[in-house]
Amino acid sequence: MNAPERINLPLSEAVTEEEIPGDLAMWFFIFAELAVFALLLGGMAFARGTWPEMFSAGVATLHPEAGLINTLALLTGSYAVARGVAAVRERRLEKLPVWFFWGALSGVFYVVVKSVEYVQLFNAGYNLRTNTFYFFYFFTTFFHLMHVVLGMVILLVVARRWQRQVYQTAETRRMAADSAASYWHMVDLVWLMLFPLLYILP
Amino acid sequence: MTTKLTFGWLSLLALTGLGWWLGHYTEGTWLLWTIILLSAIKGQWLIDHFMGLARGPKLFRAIVSGWLFLVLTSMALFL
Question: Which residues of B fall within a CB distance of 8 Å from A38?
Answer without folding.
Answer: 67, 70-71
